[in-house]
Design brief:
alpha+beta, Homing Intron 3 (I-Ppo) Encoded Endonuclease, Chain A, two-stranded antiparallel sheet, 8 strands
Length: 158
């Protein structure tokens, strides 16, 4: 049986066509497809044999080695389109999130609640994995209880 169409070129050969390397050690900018992902855009992607591959992961695994199970690649340069393996480091998901600039990272470094109470010691309570200020939680509960003690509404006073 005859083969249809031209033979597919190796994925890493096609990869290099979409990379603009910085020869001075900087980011290797991906010029190909990028997935959806917030205001900065998503991660560099390419297709191979019907699968979507992350270009930074392909670069790391080809040039450095396999990413160990359970680890994610962190972009040390904070550029999601960078595929330079020297700018990538395997980390746990938690470490990767805490190194980032998202809500998880910002909340992890907080030492006080928005009202200035310490988020430590006896004033700290955990609720569904989140840190809660006991003083603020008590004040909130008291306000809620007081608002429920008001006179019930019995219709119009004409």
């Amino acid at each position: 049986m005859a083969q249809r169409g031209p033979k597919r070129r190796p994925v890493f050969e096609r990869f290099w066509e979409k990379v603009a390397p910085n020869l001075h050690g900087g980011c290797w900018q991906w010029t190909g497809a990028v997935g959806a992902g917030g205001k900065e855009g998503g991660y560099a992607q390419m297709r191979d044999a019907g699968r979507t591959l992350y270009a930074h992961r392909l670069s790391y695994e080809t040039l450095v080695g396999i990413v160990p199970d359970g680890l994610h690649l962190d972009h040390l340069c904070r550029n999601r389109r960078c595929v330079n393996p020297l700018h990538l480091e395997p980390l746990t998901c938690r470490e990767n999130l805490l190194r980032g600039e998202g809500a998880s990272a910002k909340n992890a470094v907080k030492t006080h609640c928005k009202h200035g109470h310490p988020l430590s010691g006896k004033n700290l309570r955990m609720n569904a994995g989140k840190r809660v200020c006991r003083l603020c939680a008590s004040a909130c509960a008291a306000r809620s209880t007081n608002s429920q003690k008001q006179e019930p509404y019995h219709g119009l006073n004409l």
